[in-house]
Amino acid sequence: MKILLLQPYVQHEISHMCIKSIDKEKGFFPPLGLLYIATYLKKHTAHEVRVLDCNTEHIDVPRLETVLLEFQPDIVGVSTITHHLIDAYAAAAVIKKISTDIITVFGGAHASIYPITTVENSNIDYAIRGEGEIVFTELVRAIEQNKSLAEISAIPGIATKYLAKRGLKNGDIQRLFIDDLDSLPSPDRTLVPYKKYHNILSPNRYMTTMFTTRGCPYHCVFCNRMGRKVRSLSPGKVLSEIETLLKLGINEIFFKDDTFTIDQDRVKLICKGIIDRNYAFTWQVRTRADCFDFELLSLMKKAGCSRISFGIESGDPHILKMLRKELDFELARNVVQWCRQLGIQTLANYIIGCPGETKKEIHKTLLFAERLGTDYALFFILSLYPDTDLYRQAMASGLVPGDVWLDFAKNPTRAFIAPIWNENFSREELEEISKNIHKRFFIRPGLILREMKKIESPNEFIKKVRAAWNLWQA
Ligand code: B12
Ligand code: SF4
């Protein structure tokens, strides 16, 4: 059979939690979830598998129709987050317009929250809840073997119209996690034009993303992540994936794990491996500021780590407590200082518009950010994502009028506005505050001078000037 796995072209993202001027220049990351699934399928079956990232390849709906007519897939898997649902549904509609025989399967963060609601859409046959490598392969096998809808509906992790008609709810579908990550083949980046991916923070390099763990054990109330249980690739498997990437000419890796340094001993082994094997590339990680010691940081620097991104969230301890972030400010200050000493760049993410927050607390966050002195800082407006504790609190308190995300999942319209915690500020006020904070943080003579010194190429210079100009005009 022919299987197409696609990431739809995004034209109607429903909300931006960061100001658009920065968003515009940020670049694209490869569709890692689809690459994992495609590589697994190719290893375990003989089907013809293609991955299409419509965004980097500029394939809008009319062009998708042409691609579908040419490739003639039997099954199309679509990956989507809730925020891109309008475009994902448009892709499903065009697939079924070409032929109702093409089987459509949805997966990703959205289908994992709303599997039954997803299959209630007439253009979608199946939705997978959770990690898709094994279960999608099982589904493909079941389709190949002409299994009945009732038989397919008995496979854990799959939502079907059969189950929807029998009244099952979204939460009734089992959410699957893969325990042994080493059993998965490393995602084959050559299935997409991997040299086209770029990011404002690495404008002149061949970059890619990588995951060495899945899941996060912390309990931040605003977050929806890949499960609480942390599962890790062994250091050996991480190193062999890195080696493959280097052979492809990739020279920058963004480790996108929720908390890369959650197991410090494992990271030390990875760093020692990179150093011993003389792998030459730069890399950056996302993690918490309290999962470090100086020895680990020094080793990371020696192994090529160039930037660390932390979720600090707030400069006010009461707000942090309410967010259940449990972050030690003192440790965060130490880590940023160690990074400066070692020459590792730092990026801190903050959130404004939290429950109970007034201008006083926001000002405290800004002052904290300035004093902390990370190289970059982003101030996001708190968005109440579906399936998070904070969203449930907002519904229970009446701040959000009912389950607006579920309504959107059933009937996505462009008029939908993602809910925020608007107890003390309107959306417009928060957008204005966010703009002003970014301007104050970024448009400082000291920071501009420092940025100029870091520029390595004319291309990088143009991108940074353009982003700064957009920010100035915002
Ligand atoms: C990296 C990342 C980003 C990156 C890159 C996104 C990209 N396009 O690749 C950046 C920083 C750009 C980003 C931006 C945003 N992101 Co983001 N991001 C993530 C993150 C941390 C990891 C995603 C990832 O690559 N995972 C690794 C792969 C292996 O896992 P996966 O993609 O989930 O795929 C697995 C399964 O989902 C499933 N699967 C996936 N697709 C398919 C398809 C089929 C057919 C099947 C069967 C299965 C399947 O199988 C895969 C393998 O196991 C997740 C949080 C998390 N930890 O998951 C949030 C997350 C996906 N992002 C989220 C959001 C909301 C956004 C933004 C809208 C935020 C904003 N507006 O400010 C933007 C959208 C921008 C954009 N154009 O994509 C939400 C989505 C929530 C939801 N309800 O859908 C998440 C879950 C985080 C959260 N806060 O809750 N993001
Ligand atoms: S915000 Fe970060 S630390 Fe908190 S639960 Fe989510 S992934 Fe974990």
Assign the CATH architecture of the largest domain: Alpha-Beta Barrel
Radius of gyration: 22 Å
CATH superfamily of the largest domain: Aldolase class I
Termini Cα gap: 50 Å
Bound molecules: cobalamin, iron/sulfur cluster
Number of discrete domains: 3
CATH topology of the largest domain: TIM Barrel
How many strands, which pairing sense, and closed or not: the largest β-sheet?
A: 6 strands, mixed
**What structural class results from the helix and strand content?**
alpha/beta
Strand content: 15-25%
Helix content: 40-55%
Global mean pLDDT:
92
Low-confidence stretches: none
Number of helices: 20
Q: What topology, given as strand order, has the largest sheet?
A: 3-1-4-5-6-7
* Extended strand count: 16
- What best-fitting shape do the alpha-carbon axes yield? globular
CATH class group of the largest domain: Alpha Beta
Q: Strands, helices and their partners?
A:
Layout: E1 2-7, H1 20-23, E2 27-28, H2 32-44, E3 48-53, H3 61-71, E4 75-79, H4 85-98, E5 103-107, H5 109-113, H6 115-119, E6 126-128, H7 133-144, H8 149-153, E7 158-160, H9 161-165, E8 198-199, E9 207-210, E10 213-214, E11 231-232, H10 235-247, E12 252-255, H11 264-276, E13 282-287, H12 294-302, E14 305-313, H13 317-322, H14 329-342, E15 345-352, H15 359-372, E16 376-381, H16 389-396, H17 404-410, H18 427-442, H19 445-454, H20 458-473
Parallel strand pairs: 1-3, 1-4, 4-5, 5-6, 9-12, 12-13, 13-14, 14-15, 15-16
Antiparallel strand pairs: 2-8, 6-7, 10-11
